[in-house]
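Interim report, section 4.2 (structural modelling).
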Amino acid sequence: MATTDAMLRAEIIAVTHALDAAGLVPNKSGNVSCRSSGGFVITPAGVPYRGLTPADLVELAVDGSPPASGPRASSEWRMHAAIYAARPDAAAIVHTHSPRATALACAGRGIPAFHYMIALAGGEVRCMPYATFGTAELAVTAVQGLAGRRATLLGNHGVIAIGSSLRDAHAVALEVENLATEYLAMLAAGLEPRLLDDAELQRVIRKFADYGRLER
Ligand SMILES: [Zn+2]
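Predicted structure of the assembly:
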């Protein structure tokens, strides 16, 4: 294992621990991956995050082909492989079942552009139709939802966030949950969000790029 891949595995473990501690991947849900020298490294199927070690992570070829032996990759490996194939800008993927964003996903509601921080996701976060977990259909749906975006809601399922680094993808996933919290608060109060227009969103995206908040 190259040093960089060892560092990458340690980084994946740190992100999964942070997501788990924040309650964003309840009951062993969700998965995290990052491009590597041999393809991509992804969290394994069915191992509790708390005890996860670098050796538990699985490196798959770019097309998702598994290694001959060792731990089994997350059941969502097809979705990760399809996103890496479709999005050269994605260096890492964070998939969560974060509760508030998932609540919206279960109601078929995307997150409109009511707060400038949605620029981290590239604009309005779509909610895609339901597809069974682990299927090629879900992989296609996720790629469609991410078109021109860094995040999408998977209907009746959860959240996918991508980034130009693991840190970036993690930040987008956290922001989607923040925005969902704010959106649900508005809905609960019977308030109509006042939306930002595209010109303003583009302006914020440019400012984020200048600040280095979005790695481009
Ligand atoms: Zn899931």
